Predict the 3D structure of the following.
Amino acid sequence: MNEYGFGSRGKSPKREAHCNYDNKVQYLLSAEEQLLCQISSRAPLPGVLNRICIALDCQIGNVVSLISLPGGGANELGATATNAAIFGLYTFCSEGVVAENEELLGTLEMYCSEQRSPSADELRLIERAKCLAAIAIERQNEADQQGNRGVRGNRRGRGSMHEWPVSSN
């Protein structure tokens, strides 16, 4: 590279950061679209919740997420938190997944290997994950009410989410 910054074959750090951001946005939009397609096609709820968690974990990094459905109670949530602590994980986030009518549909728990709180950007991703989870759970509840219990399996099962690239629209 010469004194004027010309002649470099590599990308500038600013351009490279912009490209990474664009790639991340495209990845998030694609993953969210895939999740919505799976929800609308009535894919099994535990698998959808797992993919939401995986996407969320990948986007935030250094976290493990879990969505629990109602029925396990406070004992189950407490046991999960205790087990996480045994492995040196700290509670990163624990929030309810609620329907538009404020009905509790589940709980999103996230654990991290370092004690910290979510940033504003991470909170937006968490809100999108909760929204997608609420849509998926409500679809399952509707199917259950229509007598389609065999299509998705046991509603009381736990969906563990370990992925989730989510757009912050």
Notes: The mean pLDDT is 78. The longest helix spans residues 13-40. Strands lie at 63-68, 90-98, 104-112.
